[in-house]
Design a protein that fits this description.
This protein is 42% helix and 15% strand. With 282 residues, it is of the alpha/beta class. It has two domains: 46 residues, no CATH class; 224 residues, Spore Coat Polysaccharide Biosynthesis Protein SpsA, Chain A (Alpha-Beta Complex), CATH 3.90.550. It has a seven-stranded mixed beta sheet, with helices on both faces. It has a two-stranded antiparallel sheet with strand order 5-9. Helix 5 links the parallel strand 2 and strand 3. Helix 6 runs antiparallel to helix 8 and helix 8 runs antiparallel to helix 9. The longest helix has 49 residues. The radius of gyration is 29 Å and the shape is globular. It binds 2-acetamido-2-deoxy-beta-D-glucopyranose (3 copies). One 2-acetamido-2-deoxy-beta-D-glucopyranose binds next to loops. The site of one 2-acetamido-2-deoxy-beta-D-glucopyranose has 3 residues, from helix 7.
């Protein structure tokens, strides 16, 4: 009996060890997805709670690719594109107006916008149209804005040095446009600012708040870009869904956005912003 007993307890030990190992392996396989699924769901729901459900925005850059514009692209844009959230989270459309016999430096443009989703459109010989007018009419005629919740218009030398004001407004469903006034006329309410003359070097709109018809009528009625934009966006201002760039100005009637405290700056002198632009989003 003894040897048998001995053998029995030995094989029993071995068997229970095998069963134990099997149990551990099986339970590891079984529990893994069940443990992780709720965790994943929890993480996903935490993410959707914190991130506002805003569709993408489009930064619409208009340029005639002058030497100055190339310089701004070269000196400041790589840093802004890499570090500024508004740049990092947007798609880009570069509308290039070319004069006779010139070609864009595609290698340079492709390299500058390499890590973004960017499209370029070329318009040859735009004639009397000012960049901003062309940008609006082309954009609406060709449905370039359809997929975007916000369209932000700039030139290569119009730089957003602090994007907080923009995110605050873009996330506010009651706001349809963010503008600057060439005259900084008093508007204590902060909306319904119907005496303002709207800058065209920088503005941000919900494209759905403006129709092709608004743009075409304004285009017919006004030659100057700012008057055209002021008319095209009057629906937003009349509805009181207008909002204004904080700290911009004084502009004294000059329609170039600027000011010590302005979060957006338009200067055609690179040393006014470079190398400062390299650390705006640090
Ligand atoms: C620039 O990018 C466009 C689109 O991705 C491509 O078709 C074109 O060949 C590129 N040009 C150069 C010079 O890299
Ligand atoms: C990239 O931009 C195009 C518009 O030019 C848009 O249709 C597309 O959805 C964008 N892709 C991504 C991944 O955002
Ligand atoms: C950006 O602007 C916000 C106000 O909109 C301000 O609180 C913040 O300090 C500014 N950031 C920088 C880096 O100046």
């Amino acid at each position: 009996m003894q040897p048998y007993r001995h053998l029995h307890s030995k094989s029993l030990k071995r068997l229970s060890l095998i069963i134990l190992v099997l149990l551990v392996v099986v339970s590891w396989f079984v529990s893994w997805p069940y443990l992780h699924e709720p965790m994943d769901q929890l993480m996903a729901s935490l993410n959707t709670v914190n991130i506002p459900q805003r569709k993408k925005s489009l930064i619409f850059v208009t340029t005639h690719l002058s030497e100055t514009h190339y310089t701004f692209f070269e000196k400041c844009w790589p840093s802004l594109l890499a570090k500024g959230d508004i740049y990092r989270q947007s798609d880009f459309l570069v509308l290039i107006t070319l004069s006779e016999g010139t070609e864009p430096n595609w290698e340079f443009l492709n390299a500058t916008f390499a890590n973004t989703n960017y499209t370029a459109q070329v318009v040859k010989n735009p004639g009397y149209h000012q960049g901003a007018v062309l940008a609006l009419t082309k954009g609406y005629l060709n449905n370039w804005f359809d997929d975007y919740e916000w369209v932000i218009r700039v030139n290569p030398d119009v730089l957003i040095r602090n994007d907080s004001f923009l995110f605050e407004r873009m996330d506010d469903a009651k706001i349809q446009g963010v503008f600057a006034d060439c005259f900084n006329r008093d508007c204590p309410t902060g909306n319904h600012c119907s005496s303002a003359k709207i800058h065209t070097d920088f503005f941000a709109i919900r494209p759905e708040a403006v129709s092709l018809q608004d743009v075409m009528e304004a285009n017919k009625a006004k030659i100057h870009a700012e008057l055209m934009a002021t008319q095209a966006f009057s629906g937003i201002v009349n509805a009181g869904t207008d909002s204004w760039v904080p700290g911009a100005g004084p502009h004294n009637g000059n329609c170039r956005i600027r000011g010590e405290a302005s979060p957006v700056i338009h200067t055609n002198v690179i040393r006014n912003v470079y190398p400062a632009c390299l650390s705006w989003y640090d």
